Amino acid sequence: MAAPEAAVAFSSSLKTDTDSVPATAGTTAGMAAALPATAAAAAVAATAARTGSEARVSKAALATRLLSLSGVFAVHKPKGPTSAELLNRLKEKLLAEAGMPFPEWTKRKKQTLKIGHGGTLDSAAQGVLVVGIGRGTKMLTSMLSGSKRYIAIGELGKATDTLDSTGKVTEEKPYDKIKQEDIEGILQKFTGNIMQVPPLYSALKKDGQRLSTLMKRGEAVEAKPARPVTVYSISLKKFQPPFFTLDVECGGGFYIRSLVSDIGKELSSCANVLELTRTKQGPFTLEEHALPEDKWTIDNIAQSLEHCSSLFPAELALKKSKPEESNEQVLSCEYITLNETKGEDDVIKTC
């Protein structure tokens, strides 16, 4: 009996060992299958980490490049926003591209980006707005002493409190007898070195406050005395009553709104500015130099700065600054207002 029992035991043992083999193989196969999945997940994680790291490096490089920009360029201001609002829009676009959204930017403490404009355009006006960035903000004052050129469309027969179409109509007079020759005949009176009374709605100040702000509050405001201004040329481009189009080149501190109003009075009528476009400021022209909003990128501005550097005399040219080493940044804002003998076109805002 011992032999058969041993045989049975051996057979049973053999069966048990044989049965265990498939289980072990299956486990090995499962582990083998799991390994590629784990490796793939690790690879994906590594790629994501690499991509995130590269993105951070790229943003840091853009931020450094943004901080290294210095010079003066021009943008195209559309109708609607004020010059200050447009400057903020430009600033926020550049900060977003560099990965520094405005709320975060203001919390940083080490570096400063300065960006400002020289020569304010009314919200209803459009055209060339000169912008300084970095050390270029120090060049903006020179922009105010240069000539400016405007295309203005005036409307005869209506006077407004702001001297343009955004104000309330304060007076209406006939204009039907006014001819093209009448307008052309009086333009010489407004050419050269003349005296001009600035508008009540302006950036000129009384007791530290803008006249326009006081006017909007309903406070009584006296007109500023006439002051010397320069008009290099005026020509009548079109006359289709009640509208007339002027091409004007003038110096700093000159108000197109006052010019159009004075022309209306000289014609024994009244007039206001319907549309105003600045086509040139200093060496910058609307067609050649002014960047539209869809071109407001760090690369495009860098190229524009390079292109525009040749527009200035050698003594005003800026040396290229070295890129900042730190990525810590801060936004500082300051307002620089020139002497009150200048007009609202002659306010520099630096942010």
UniProtKB/TrEMBL annotation:
UniProt main location, coarse: cytoplasm
Alphabetic keyword roster: Acetylation, Cytoplasm, Isomerase, mRNA processing, Nucleus, tRNA processing
Catalyzed chemical reaction(s): uridine(55) in tRNA = pseudouridine(55) in tRNA; a uridine in mRNA = a pseudouridine in mRNA; a uridine in tRNA = a pseudouridine in tRNA
Entry-linked SUPFAM superfamilies: Pseudouridine synthase (SSF55120)
UniProt-listed InterPro entries: PsdUridine_synth_cat_dom_sf (IPR020103), PsdUridine_synth_N (IPR002501), tRNA_psdUridine_synth_TruB (IPR014780)
Location in the cell: Cytoplasm, Cytosol; Nucleus
Residue ranges constituting the Pseudouridine synthase II N-terminal domain according to the UniProt record: 107-256
Positions in coiled-coil regions: none
Enzyme type, top EC level: isomerase
GO terms of biological process kind: mRNA processing; mRNA pseudouridine synthesis; positive regulation of pre-miRNA processing; tRNA modification
Highest taxon, organism lineage: Eukaryota
One Gene Ontology cellular component annotation held by this UniProt entry: cytosol
Cited NCBIfam families: TruB (TIGR00431)
Family stated for the protein in its record: Belongs to the pseudouridine synthase TruB family.
Protein's UniProt name: Pseudouridylate synthase TRUB1
Gene assigned in the entry: TRUB1
